[in-house]
Structure formats: structure tokens, C-alpha cells
Write a structure and sequence with these properties.
about 270 residues, alpha/beta, about 20% strand
């Protein structure tokens, strides 16, 4: 008999990149797809000046939060890995947005709309938005990249995630039995906005069925379509290496993602 899985330990696990928690977290709410008001958290750098406008990174989730709450006893935005990523990104000088969803795709769109409507009040520069996503959440982020109005999203960081079903593959569709949404079904990299730079982090020893094959096919097709894409491969990394593989290589890749986001957003002077 296999040992019992400690769900609370999984949900509590933070990334292995240690940083000072130099950020301020403010709880607000937004209107979700079902008309209810749902929590949205805004992480600000401790150095943020009142009245200033900073770029922001939205952490995209792809599982309904009702399921996360039922299985893990907490919403996805309260997972230790997500909180510590938000802190790390905010400590790098960017605003970070996390949220509770009812319908993953619709509410990702609603969060972007909330930022568009209240950006000035929130101190967010709406012309400089990035997205971050990982694992089974990535298909929702890709759907958002394809469906978002041109110019809404400036860059995306996609970590060890299922990507798109390409060349007749059904890997992503089959894996969606785990509960994540796949709004980009039937789409290809040709549908992605060419002006949005991507960084894709691959776990070389990823144990999730077929996941790396979706990354490999995605990168190959993205290059054929001349997309702005960077690939980093953690040769010894398992799935969720940022939280489970305590190594210098893991920390190097986390730093690489943080640098990508800050260069593309904080230091960007043009589109």
C-alpha cells in the first residue's frame, strides 16, 4: 500500500528561493463570472511610492478554486508556492495579482478587466502586464494569451506546464481529467500574439504523463512561427522543481524567470 499523501504539506510548500519578504499584500475583491465578489490580492513592492504606476504580473490559475478548497483546504492563491512566488516577484519591483476563481478562464479575463477598470486606483500600469503560470494552470494562461485583446499582455512566464495539443496529440486533453481547463483546445502557436515574449521552464525529469512532449512540440512550432521564446531546461528537475528540488540550479532558474519579468516589464521602455 502506498503511503498516504500529505495534502497539507503539498499546499504549504514554498519555493526554494529565499528572499526577504519585502512586499505589502492588500486584500480586495473583483466580480467573478457568476456575479459574486471574490477575493483578489495585490502584492506591492515595499519600495512602491504612493501615486506611482508600476507594471504587474497576474498569476493565472487553471483549476476551479472550489476544487482546490475541497481537496487542499485552501484556495490556490494561498498555496505556499504561489505566495512565495508572488513575494519573490514583488520583491523584484513588480506588482503581483492573485485571485480566487469560480470559472478559471472567464475569471482570468475578469481579473484583467478589473485591472483595466481600476488600474489607476491600484497603481498598476495597464500597458505593462505579464502573466505567470505553472503546471496544469498553463493551458488556461495560453488560452488567455490567445484570447486577450492585442496589447493587453506584454509577456508570459510558463513553468513546467502542459501546453497545447499539436500535430494530432491528445496529451493535454487526456491530462485535463485532473481538473484543469483547456480553453485553447484546437489552437496552435500560430494563434499566439507574435509580439509577446515567452519564457518556458522545462523539468527534465518531469513525471507527469506526456507533459514534456507537449513542451517540446510547442517550442519547435513556436520557433517555426518565429515567436519570441526562451527555453530553460532543468536537466535534473522533477515536476514542481521550484518547490521540491533544493539546488543551486533551481535557484538559478527562478532568478532567470524573475529577471525575464523585470526586463520585459519593469525596464521596458517600448513595446
Amino acid at each position: 500500500m502506498s503511503p498516504e499523501i500529505d495534502l497539507q504539506a503539498i499546499a504549504s510548500r514554498r519555493i526554494v528561493y529565499r528572499i526577504p519578504r519585502e512586499c505589502v499584500r492588500r486584500a480586495q475583491s473583483y466580480r467573478a463570472a457568476d456575479g459574486t465578489m471574490q477575493p483578489i490580492d495585490i502584492y506591492y513592492p515595499s519600495t512602491a511610492v504612493s501615486g506611482s504606476m508600476l507594471p504587474a504580473v497576474v498569476m493565472i490559475t487553471g483549476y476551479p478554486d472550489a476544487g482546490m478548497l475541497r481537496i487542499f483546504g485552501r484556495h490556490a492563491k494561498e498555496f505556499g508556492s504561489n505566495v512565495s512566488w508572488a513575494e519573490a516577484i514583488a520583491a523584484s519591483g513588480l506588482i503581483v495579482v492573485t485571485y480566487v476563481n469560480v470559472k478559471p478562464y472567464d475569471d482570468a479575463v475578469n481579473v484583467l478587466q478589473h485591472i483595466s477598470d481600476y488600474g489607476t486606483e491600484l497603481g498598476i500600469d495597464r500597458s505593462r502586464l505579464g502573466v505567470w503560470s505553472c503546471s496544469g494552470n498553463v493551458p488556461n494562461a495560453l488560452g488567455l494569451l490567445i484570447g486577450a485583446p492585442d496589447g493587453r499582455i506584454s509577456c508570459a512566464a510558463l513553468l513546467y506546464g502542459y501546453m497545447l495539443d499539436l500535430n494530432g496529440s491528445t496529451i493535454v486533453k487526456d491530462a485535463s481529467r485532473f481538473g484543469f481547463v483547456t480553453p485553447a483546445t484546437g489552437r496552435s502557436t500560430a494563434d499566439l500574439p507574435t509580439r509577446v515574449p515567452l519564457i518556458v521552464a522545462r523539468a527534465g525529469l518531469d513525471e507527469m504523463p506526456g507533459l514534456n512532449r507537449t513542451i517540446d512540440a510547442f517550442v519547435e512550432q513556436a520557433l517555426e512561427n518565429n515567436l519570441a521564446i526562451s527555453l530553460v531546461n532543468h536537466r535534473e528537475g522533477p515536476h514542481a522543481f521550484d518547490a521540491v528540488h533544493d539546488s543551486d540550479e533551481t535557484r538559478r532558474i527562478i532568478r532567470q524567470v524573475l529577471v525575464f519579468l523585470t526586463i520585459r516589464l519593469l525596464r521596458a521602455t517600448d513595446k
